[in-house]
Hints:
282 residues; 2 strands; 59% helix; globular; cell membrane
Amino acid sequence: MPIAADLLAIMPFPDIDPIAFSIGPLAIHWYGLAYVAGILLGWAYARRLAADDSLWPGNTSPMTKTQLDDFIVWAALGVVLGGRLGYIFFYDLSAVLRDPIRAVQIWNGGMSFHGGLTGTTIAMIVFARRNAIPIWSLFDIVATVVPFGLFFGRIANFINGELWGRLTDVSWAVVFPTGGPFARHPSQLYEAGLEGIVLLLVLAALVYGMRALKSPGFITGVFVCGYALSRIFVEFFREPDAQLGYLLGTNWLTMGMVLSSPMILLGLWAMLRARRQAALQL
């Protein structure tokens, strides 16, 4: 365990204003721009996938570009509402019960990925049924593009100096303005790399190299399992939320680990189910 003297400033935090720019009294934050960038890039990539019939079962895309355009609003609502409600229930319920107005103060805690995933899943199920789209194919196309949002979201967390890592003396450690005078893991960047870049490339390789979209649900399983493994790994370097701390009297178990662990089993089940369904159709 590094001693306190070793944990003093190693790398200064980059002086980046959380507010990207202002238009009169309206302040535009990097965090909000990150959501916009993730949704727009994901939408553009999803339209490209939907336009390529050769990627899909029967060489026929299960949805049109127009349907994807309509789904953007549903996805955005699912991410934002689910993400905020998830953070409240998983991480901040007692504080919100004491002060209900805190529920709409996104700067107090922010969003939960697991809540956003739940909200988006509900939106996908309802949208697929209303538009006669195969549900697993819609799951797959959304799973393929989610890493864009994860990447930009974690970069925004870093710019905001929030969700920082545990104390460390590694040479790339960062002293965050809100994290005290000690050096910490830039765990936001670890997550941006694993959940964003690595997962995006793995899914793209499966889509274009192995034609995995032809087995509906397989890409979804890989994403869910890949995210869970990445999140659990990074949780060993990330400081737990102050209001929760470590769970069950340990100095390592966090809420992020608890919420992510069932996702591994869910992801494996989705992959096995997709393979079984594909084998039955041969």
